[in-house]
Amino acid sequence: xxxxxxxxxxxxxxxxxxxLDNIQSHHLIKALRLKEGRVVEVFDGNGxxxxxxIVLLNNNKCELKRxxxxxxxxxxxxxxxxxxxxxxxxxxxxxxxxxxEIGVNKFIIYKPELCDQSIAKKDLExxxxxxxxxxxxVCKQSGNNFLPQIIHTRNLDEAINLxxxxxxxxxxxxxxxxxxSFEELGxxxxxxxxxxxESGFSEKELDSIKKNNIEIRYLGExxxxxxxxxxxxxxxxxxxxxxx
Length: 244
Description:
single chain, alpha/beta, CATH 2.40.240.20, Alpha/beta knot, 6-stranded parallel β-sheet, 12 strands, 23% strand
């Protein structure tokens, strides 16, 4: 019988019994139609997980009891960070889903200067919250016990300032002169990649990239969509890490 997975930070806490939030409870009760006594795997998003028994179901409320030791996964030595723009909502959600499935460790989201008008006036915090829900669902399905971190910044400058100093940094742009090769990734460093929106980087953003001495690379003759480019390059990087 398949063991279903559910997300709850409390699984690694001091209490053996704990309650799920409304969203996770609703999923177990309404979508999966699980009953009291069923065992599920619960992960906390920080690498810990445990087997838990459903001890109470009441409307949208679900309580669990931990019945195994808490297992702790090791944090990865090499990480992949994507600095990606807000783009059209459906495309953005698709991009977040696929990048999470590939195993991106951190997302830094920026609002591009050449922003698509369909999202220019939208509440970007709501889009970020939807992204967090997508990430949780991906990790439930994939077996990943670490939720990728997601950070919202106002612009590309802010996003670049959050890059770890020891990361190798690459920007991907159709006007770049040098082709990207996994051979330059080395064997130990973590990687940060930066991609632009549908309309490309603005002159101000390109100046910021150059000022920060970030390597600019080209992905090939085919022009990739804004949501496809980070998926393509993330697949190359994670394959190089041996994690895909």
